Amino acid sequence: MKSEQWTTNWVIDKLTGHNRIFSIKKDNENDLILIERNFGENIIVATLSLSEINISSVVDIITNKKLDFIVNVKKDYIVKEDAYQLATQHKVIIGGMGDIDRIMNQEYNWPYLDPETNFIIRGLEQHTKVRSINKIDNRRLKLSTINNNYLIIIYLNDYDLSIESVRKSIREYNSFDCILKSNPNGRISSDAVELASSLNIKLLTWGELLRELNFIWKQQI
To answer: Tens of pLDDT along the chain (221 residues)?
Structure first.
């Protein structure tokens, strides 16, 4: 899918004047944004405005254009596994305006993890039962344990994690063994716990997840 004209202009407008950008200009032929930084690697950016990013949304711009980042201007969106894996294969980041702003503070464009994901992965890497962690898409991680068991975790930053949060996760991401409430504030509703339990899905806080990892959940096939 080609970058939308208005999103390209909108992102340029938002980034113009950034104190870490030396110059920013538009590549009209390819509808890309070319950013030269004061410090660090230059960045080539494509833009989208989608609620769901799947492989058909990005295959053309990732495989046929040289770029580093796809900015999705939607605040609430999902990145499907096929799109995320294709982007990862080509070392292209898919994120929002906050993500590209944070990249300005690091020297290299790749690798990059948003603060929430980085915190979770770094914490899990220190767990004695965790052997490896693979990021499946923008909200799911696949963990393998030292006993060769595995589980898929989806992490949600909801302040109040409700039954609708569980339903939405199932509808959008389909397959997972555990819902992690990554936001330390707020609460988990009892009906959310009840629905998750009825589907054999664990709904856990961060501390609860670290404790539960000491037990076998699902055998690796």
So the answer is: 445 578 999 999 999 989 899 999 999 888 899 999 998 999 999 999 999 999 999 999 999 889 999 999 998 899 999 999 999 999 999 999 999 999 988 999 999 999 999 999 999 999 999 999 999 999 999 999 887 788 999 999 999 999 999 999 999 998 899 999 999 999 999 999 999 999 999 999 999 999 988 876 554 43
What are residue 164's phi and psi, to 5 degrees? -70, -30
| One-letter amino acid for residue 143 of the chain | L
Q: Within 10 A of 65 (CB to CB), how many other CB atoms are there?
A: 16
* CA nearest to 38, candidates 57, 24, 52: 24
Fold adopted by 5-103: Trna Endonuclease; Chain: A, domain 1 (3.40.1350)
Q: Report the distance separating Cα 201 and Cα 12, nearest Å.
A: 42
Whole-model pTM: value is: 0.87
3-state secondary structure 21-46: EEEEEEECCCCEEEEEECCCCCEEEE
Give residue limits of the domains in the chain: 5-103, 115-212
Per the document, the length of the chain is: 221
Q: How far apart, in whole angstroms, are the C-alpha atoms of residue 88 and residue 136?
A: 10
Angle, helices 81-89/55-64, rounded to nearest 10 degrees: 10
